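Quick one:
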Amino acid sequence: MIVKKIKAQPRATRGKTARVTALIDYIDAPQNRRREEKCVYAGARNHLCETRAGQQTEMIALAQEAVASKDPIQHWVLSWREDEQPTTAQVEAAVDLFLDGLGMRAHQALYALHADTDDLHLHLVVNRVHPDTLKVIKPNGGFDLEAAHRAIARIEHVQGWEREPNGRYRVSAVGELVREPRRREPGPGSKAGDLEARTGTTSAERIAREEGAPILRRATEWADLHLRLAARGLRLEPQGRGAVLWVGGVAVKASRAGRECGWGALYQRLGAYLPAESVFPPDERRRESLRSDRPETAAYRADRQEYHRAKAQDRAALQRRQQAERQALRDRHRQARHHWLCGQWQGRGLQLNALRGAIAVVQAGERATLRDRHRQERAALRQRYPRFPDYEEWHRDWRDSGSDASAGGRPSEPASLSADGQIAPASGEVGIPRASPTSGDRPATPADGLATEIYRRHFQDVRSREGNALDRSRVDAMIAVRLRVTGHSRDEIVATLANGAPTLRDPEEERDWPRYAARAARYAFGPAGDREVERLARYREPWRALESRPAQRLPREPSPSWS
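Output:
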């Protein structure tokens, strides 16, 4: 799990009422900002009112009591992995464990579970004002993020979620929290990593680290350094009090490639800077794909390049036309002023000033009308060309649409989230989910009994190997990957999970099983599933043999207690 503390933006903070209202409006209706994101479950802690509006008013009133605190409201986000789907009971238990970890079990809290196409995440709004003492507390003495990471480790241990690779804390075998040593792995920064995830290509910073850094470390003189960098499509230039490494047309600080690559280290080792004899053209360096071995990568790059080319052309055309219209209006206004104000006005100063004022008013209105129209045209262009999806989103939509990778082409519409949530949206009172569908709503298949038996065999095999510590949604994600490895289609996997999973669960567990199964299948056929299929391909024949064994009696697994 991942935890984040969302800080209030100073410019957006207009007071406690506006702060609470904006937060609750967002967590209850996220689709107003992001169309693909929806609230699927909501709840509250330590409120007298049962309605959401009343709970919001209570939180505002209590926050107003803390006159010495400008912002006593905290906004936290807890995210599960793509292959994890918590139940409503697990969400409620996670809220309790998290508030306990922060020492705010008695404080007001409003929360909502959001589902989008990638993962499930919980938005938690907590009031730091104690309802009895009216004092504003500082969780963990002000080190609230540290306490939050400890609470996340507890939630992962109790509910069986997978730990993040760089998690701060873990729970030992004896149940004690242990802080993991910090390990700083070399690699690109957060912005460069986001760029790679968004475009599927190597970032300039990664190229500087992997290709430029070894050259800078081994260099013995400036001339040799420039020649070796040029052979890689790179060049080094001093800038300000440091140096930048140019990767094509992108500048990267030399120090980002490593401590030994900074300007000070180079100056001490090589002496005074000597420029290169010839400048390497910055646009001759091309970035390689991070996934060059996959056939759909070329289709993604072609789609993205064509999208941005069309966007740039339309934007340039719009800018040229609007500039021409502005110039034409200025010329027309100049001619109008010359026409009306020419002649002799001596002795008629009042009339001249009145005419000038009338002309100014008319022309100001025409300029305002033109500005409004241009603003609407730019907004329409931005709406026509939204952000191009990153590789993970594009790859998922490409999978859903069944496109041919060699043909390329961006799916006309993204996959709808409504078919992939796993918890029914709240109905009626806040925090009460809609009843789960009956067995008749599950995907129909001619071999429901066989699909259920295949699911039960895989479930028993996973439990025998991994034990009972794993959450069941993670087990089902593993089963979905196994079924893909053995050659089952996506529809068959959805039907197998939707029909098999309820047979080994508590009958009172509230799930929308078709949506739950569809989300697990989406994971199996997504980028993470691709990597798992490649890693587990050697088990294809044993798992096929497992599916063809004689049927065995498997008892229903008891439900765990999250108390």
